[in-house]
Amino acid sequence: MRRAKGQIRPLSWANVSPRADRHVYVRHCAPPAGWDSPRRLRVAAILASILLQVAGVHAQIPPPELIVSTDRQTATVGDPIAFVLTVRFDSTLRLGVPPPAAMLGQFDVLGDTVESEGALRDGRREYKRRWRLAAFKTGDLWIPSINGVLTDKSGATRAWRADSLAVTITSVLAGSADTTDIRGLKGPYVAGQHAWFWWLAGALIVLLFAATWWWERRRRRRAAVLTVPPVPPWETALAALAALHEEVDPDQDGARLWYFHLSEILRRYWDGRYGWQSIDQTTTEIAAILNEAPFNGTHRQRAREFLDLADQVRYARLPARLGRAMVDWEWVRAFVNETIPRVPPAATGNEPEVGQVPATHGS
Q1: Phi-psi bin for 219: left (phi > 0), alpha (psi -120 to 50), beta?
Q2: Which of 144, 205, 230, 285 could form a disulfide with 105 if both were Cys (CB 3.0 to 4.6 A apart)?
Q3: Environment class of residue 260 by beta-carbon count within 10 Å: exposed (0-12), middle (13-18) or buried (19+)?
Q4: Crossing angle, helix 297-314 and helix 324-338, to 10 degrees?
Q5: pLDDT tens string 201-228
Q6: Among residues 146, 143, 159, which one has the least CA distance to residue 85?
Q7: What share of the chain is helix, strand, coil (3-state, %, to 5)?
Q8: Residues 80, 72 contacting (CB under 8 angstroms)
Q9: What is the pTM of this model?
């Protein structure tokens, strides 16, 4: 049987309470006009589910943990104060912080750095920021609260605000008497009875340094200066001739390598013995010098012939006649031996000038 609108219907309480004689009466009212259509009911259900999800998400995300601290609660004027802000928040949120500023309340900002920013073991993220502050006013000054926002993935934001901190700033002056009165002069310093001991110790240290300096200077003067005299050019030339005879075959490659070495040995001997620069000169330039060379005419003519033959063998690749290489080697050795001075020029200083033939030269 269908009941009319507004009629009260009893409902049994037997399924809820052991007392079966109790009843609950529910009054059935008609819904507003137009809300009984299926389309509007579906829209209302969707909006209700969205609101429930948003409310559930906001209910599940915990609020951020805000920590503020300073390294001191009392400081003097101009002393740097470290102020640290730590924000720990859910990893699904994005943190918004205030930008750097030159002042933080009544404090000058000396430095503003992000000390750390990363994930924690419990799944949250931590943001730590450090300010270096300084105040130039005295009294109880407040570091203002730092505020920002947290943004979730949907774009919804929630604001956060840290606590403010009080710091006592004192003057660098010890007391008011320092600013009004002039302190008197200190009395004269009276040295103790054993002050002579310190004077004696200082004098001994000075004497020790002076004695050390004098001894080092005297030792350096007495030390013999070891000077190695240069090797005479004739000894160098004879040693090079002996090495050439042992190491190079005079008939190899038409004696080309042989004459390269032999010509260099003779030129370096001329440069060391007479001060020439023949090692860097051409045969034509050396021939002009030979006209005034300080040795006899036989050696001058023989030197011109040797230089011409050496150029032909080295540069024109004309092979030397068999046995000629050893003949030229013998002449260079004889020339060096005959032009060795009786007494080395370094000992007498009587080195013959160009054009002067020493008395020890052979004819």
Answers
A1: alpha
A2: 144
A3: middle
A4: 140
A5: 889 999 999 999 999 888 887 665 556 6
A6: 146
A7: 40, 20, 40
A8: no
A9: 0.36
Give the DSSP H/E element, type plus range, for residue 327.
helix 324-338
Secondary structure (3-state) at 65: strand
- Amino acid identity of 158? R
Determine the Cα–Cα distance for residues 283 and 270; give it in Å rounded to an integer: 13
Q: Which of 118, 144, 148 is nearest to 131 (CA)?
A: 144
Residue with tokens 């002042």: 103
CA–CA dist 148, 99 (Å, integer): 10
**DSSP per residue over 14-61, as a string?**
TTT-S-TT-EEEEE--PPPTTTTSHHHHHHHHHHHHHHHHHHHHHHHS
Tell me how crowded residue 306 is: count the other CB atoms within 10 A of its CB.
Answer: 21
Strands 8-12 and 23-27 turn out to be antiparallel
Six-digit token string for 315: 């540069």
Angle at the Cα of 298 (from 236 to 254), degrees rounded to 5? 60
